[in-house]
Structures are given as C-alpha cells and as structure tokens.
Amino acid sequence: MSDTLHGAATRHALPSYLDHDRLGPWGIFLQQVDRVTPYLGSLARWVETLKRPKRILIVDVPIQLDDGTIAHFEGYRVQHNTSRGPGKGGVRYHQDVTLSEVMALAAWMSIKNAAVNVPFGGAKGGIRVDPRRLSLPELERLTRRYTSEIGLIIGPTKDIPAPDVNTNERVMAWMMDTYSMNVGETATGVVTGKPISLGGSLGRHEATGRGVFTVGAEAARRIGLHVAGARVAVQGFGNVGGIAARLFAEAGARVVAVQDHAGCVYREAGLDIPALLRHAKATGSVADFAGAEPLARDAFWDTPCDILIPAALEQQITEANAGRIQARLIIEGANGPTTPAADDILTERGVLVVPDVIANAGGVTVSYFEWVQDFSSFFWSEQEINERLVAIMKGALDAVWQVADDKGVTLRTATFIVACERILRARDLRGLYP
After folding, report:
1. Which residues make up each annotated binding site?
2. Family assignment (predicted)?
3. Which residues are catalytic?
C-alpha cells in the first residue's frame, strides 16, 4: 500500500471501540450501515458520519442509599446525530446497560426519526442499575443526580429524553423538575412521556404499541394475511408488547403465546389478553397465569403462529433460532431484536420482517406531538393524536415499501435507504463548520 493510501486509510479508520469486531448492538448497527451504503449514491461520501456518534457522555452517578451508604452507578447519554434536529431518545435503567448498547440505540433513533420524517436527530441514555433493588426514594435520587450530570447536553432544543426500559412518566417528571430547577424556569419540553398534568400528551402511553399494530396490520394486508383469526406470538409484555397484543386481539387475532422476563404461556385457542394484562400487573409477570399452559422459554421460538412480535430486548432472534420461527410476518416492537445473520435466514425463508426503525416509531412520533404541544401550550384530543399517528405510520410504511419494491431489497434496507438519505442530505446541505 502506498503512503498516500495508507494515510487515507488511517484518517478514516474507526476508533477501536467502534469496530465491527466488537459486535454487540453497535456492531450490528455498523453492519446495517454497510449494507445500505451502496444505495446512497453521492451521499455515500458522508457515510462515516453515521459510524461516529456526535457526542458520548459517560457519567458517574453517586447517590446515598437509604441505609446511609454511598453507591456509584455508571450512566450514559449518547447523541448520535443532530443534523436534522435536536437529539431524541429514551433513557433506560437496566443492570446490563453498556456503552455499545446505548450507542446503537441512539443510532437507531436517528434512523427511526428520519424514517417517519420527524425533525429530530438520534440520542439515547441509560444507567447500569437494577431498579428493582432500589427503593422509590433511592430511584428518585438516582434520577435527579443523573439528570444533573447530563444537564449540560440536554434541553428542549438540544436533546430531549423520554421513557424506555424500566423508566416511566414518574421518572420523566423527576427529570423535568430537576432540569427546570437547575435552569431556573419550568421547561416542560425537556422530556416527553411525562404525566398529562405536567404537559404530557394524550395517547403517548399507548403510542409505541399502537404503532406496532398499525404497521403490522398494514403489512399483513399487503401480503394477504388476514389479521382476524391470525395466530400471534408476543415476546415482551410491557408497554409495547402488552398494548400491541391487546390491539391485535381486539382486531380478531388469536394471541396464542406470550413470553416475558419470568415466564412463557401458551393457549392454542387464544389467550384472554385483558385477563393476562391484569395478572401481569398484579404479579409482575405472565408466569402462572391460570388461563394458559406454561411453555419452556426456548420453545417459544417453535410456536406455530402467523405473526411474531419481538418486543423485549436486543439480539433475541439470531442464526440459532431464526430457522425455527414459523411466522410469515415479524413486527419488531423492540429495538434491534434481530441480528444481521438472522435477517438473512429469514429473508431466504420468505419471512417478512417489518424492522424496528419503523415498526416501533409510534412512541417517538407521539413524543414529537408532545414536544410541539409543550412549545405551543395548546393540546390536542386523544382522537386527534391517534389519527395523526396512524396517518404518519402508514405514510412512512408506504414510502419504505415503495423503495423495497423499486430496489428489490428488504424492508429493513429500504428503511435505512430512506432514513440515511434524509440524514446525509441534511449533513451535505449544512456543510462543515468551521
């Protein structure tokens, strides 16, 4: 290799912690970008922008526990890209949170926001903590300290956090109050997913699950699969999977299997979803539900079904189980549930995958509505929210479907084409400063 070529390679080499070989969630995102690059034309000159997060903040989060001792937790806030607008993405509390995961989640938010064409960039946050081991006062102190630590990079026009795994509207209320106290004014627009009484939006709680149902039902229609009578299996039974399961059941589908962190249940005739939701709320899990048979965790992937909704965590569908899945349609309610190798297997088998970056974009779409309402101090009815959500989700799927047909690619690649073109066109038009 000549010195000139070697110098160019060195200038564009990724830092070691961003390398493909350190797979994890971030490595999966890098593979997805590589797959879409050949379709970007002249915009491909900017593709390294997508492979390097704009800003990574790692913070120590010390709190005093109820017994008087001091505990330290590691927190993150990653802003992947802000070419199209302020960063937007949730905050998760989980004992397995890693920097690779938060980087990938921030990047998928960039793609997701561009795919549904809301004026946000991508960001994500997290704390490596098992929130079940903290009391409510400890959880509040953790949230307020974390918010103060990341306060220098968040704000209503800079980066807007939201709920994610193990965080909710109460956590968002603490975040909003902490930020507001630190800046000396009430700033409702600094977070979304807040309580209605603090500037939250009607319809936000159900938005992600409703979006999963909306694009799933539309995709099913396009491949000639009738939702009424269809067998559905759902992994994850929280705010996304539980609501999606309820909406599919209300549309006449039979939800035959549900798996969560502690158990898996099955009923060929269809589970009573309202009863299962009540049981899960009362006990913390679907396990031991009287109206179903228990199912071994790994056997979930062999469940005879027409529609599969992975709505738990990343990397659940892999090359080890992709060949066992019997569904015709997979709707990704979780972020990054399918590895690239599994994607290839499913494509070869003719299984249609509606990817996370469009399927679960309902939450951020209504978060955008909430942000707009906070700025204007004018709030819409829940019917208006849902109608706008459905229109945006169907329009986004229609655009992606057209690209998939035109270029002969999967829906995931088509979604990345649409989103990456929008992000990189904005980058190209803005240019570099200084």
Report:
1. 88, 112, 208, 239, 367
2. Belongs to the Glu/Leu/Phe/Val dehydrogenases family.
3. 124
Within 13 Å, how many C-alpha atoms sit on residue 411's CB side?
Answer: 24
Report pTM: 0.90
Longest dimension (CA), the chain: 70
The domains of the chain are located at: 1-50, 53-186, 206-359
What distance in Å separates the CA atoms of residue 191 and residue 122, rounded to the nearest whole number? 14
pLDDT in tens, 395-408: 999 999 999 999 99
The third-level CATH classification (topology) of the domain covering 53-186 is Rossmann fold (3.40.50)
Q: Give the model's confidence band at 4: pLDDT under 50 very low, under 70 low, under 90 confident, else very high.
A: very low
* Helix extents (H) in 188-313: 204-222, 241-250, 273-283
Tell me the three state secondary structure of residue 102. helix
Given this chain, do its domains 53-186 and 206-359 carry the same CATH topology?
yes
Alpha helices in 160-272 (DSSP H): 169-183, 204-222, 241-250
Architecture of the domain whose range is 206-359: 3-Layer(aba) Sandwich (3.40)
Cite the annotated binding site for NAD(+) by residue number.
208, 239
User: What does the alpha-carbon distance between residue 213 and residue 233 come to, in Å, rounded to a whole number?
Assistant: 13
- Residue numbering of the annotated binding site for substrate: 88, 112, 367
Identify whether the C-beta of residue 216 lies closer than 8 Å to the C-beta of residue 393: no
